[in-house]
Amino acid sequence: MAKKPQTTSPLQFIPQDYFRRLSINEIFADDKPLEIDLGCGDGTFLLEMAKHYPERNFLGVERLLGRVRGVCKRAEDAKLTNVKVLRLESKYTLEWLLPEESVSRLHLLCPDPWPKAKHARRRLVQQDFLEALRKVLTPGGEFLFKTDHPPYFEWVEEEIETFSKFNQLEWPEDAFFYPKTDFQKLWESQGKSLQALRLQK
Ligand SMILES: C[S@@+](CC[C@H](N)C(=O)[O-])C[C@H]1O[C@@H](n2cnc3c(N)ncnc32)[C@H](O)[C@@H]1O
């Protein structure tokens, strides 16, 4: 039997043009503060945030289509109107698509650590990423990063020191509502702990 063609969810954000910067109201029509979850995976964090903060908008960015569809479906089932998901590569999204000074908080949680030395240059957080991040954050906007991989954490600290255009903020656990991601739960169930960093533009 022929497979039914899959329809695209209205919550999957598909840019009209991938070769120019978006304007903010192309993503969400209203003017709520925008938060981005880069590599949102199965969307556990993204959806909990969207439920908790209806006064903010949340865009998940994820390259795997199955995950994008899954997150959109769960958001639709939960009747969330402040979530969308973009299927695209994180760095491209930051460098070329997101409007300048449009993002109030950008979350990068448990990104691929590329643990082998010969692959380290594939890590997302590097000088060009930080420059693109600085452009898209609003004044006072924040970057929130977590990893279970100590060498990646050290790498990010060094990159940030070299970049030197952000202020580091304290991030005590009870500072604000911040749900655990799917990977965080997995790593913690294996006895691993995470390191976290909070920066401000
Ligand atoms: C280790 S998982 C973490 C998922 C989620 N942030 C969490 O903590 O549960 C990394 C996710 O980022 C996605 N990803 C990895 N590299 C990416 C890239 N360059 N652009 C977009 N998504 C990416 C993967 O497909 C995966 O879903």
Total beta strand runs: 7
What's the helix-strand series? HEHEHEHEHEHEHE
| CATH architecture annotation | 3-Layer(aba) Sandwich
In terms of DSSP E residues, the strand content is: 15-25%
Q: Kindly state the percentage of residues in helix.
A: 25-40%
List low-pLDDT spans: none
CATH topology: Rossmann fold
Q: Can you put this structure into words, describing what you see?
A:
33% of the residues lie in helices and 21% in strands. It is of the alpha/beta class. It has a 7-stranded mixed beta sheet with strand order 3-2-1-4-5-7-6. The structure holds S-adenosylmethionine. Residues 39-41, 61-64, 67, 89-90, 109-112, 181-184 line the site of S-adenosylmethionine.
Helices and strands in order:
Blueprint: H1 24-27, E1 34-38, H2 44-52, E2 57-62, H3 65-77, E3 83-87, H4 90-97, E4 103-109, H5 127-136, E5 137-147, H6 150-163, E6 167-169, H7 182-189, E7 195-200
Parallel strand pairs: 1-2, 1-4, 2-3, 4-5
Antiparallel strand pairs: 5-7, 6-7
The protein binds S-adenosylmethionine.
Brief description of this entry?
Substrate binds at residues 116, 148. GO terms for molecular function: tRNA (guanine(46)-N7)-methyltransferase activity. Helices cover 33% and strands 21% of the residues.
Which structural traits does this protein have?
201 residues; alpha/beta; Rossmann fold; seven-stranded mixed β-sheet; 7 helices; 33% helix; globular; binds S-adenosylmethionine
